[in-house]
Amino acid sequence: SINLTVISKKLQNMFFYHLEAFAFLDSAIL
User: Would the pTM count as exceeding 0.85?
Assistant: First the structure.
């Protein structure tokens, strides 16, 4: 179960990183 929490945290970090990158691209286009 420890591995599961570590994997989920890594997935969350990747998800939020992509959200920030997408928001940056969106603001750059506008």
Answer: no
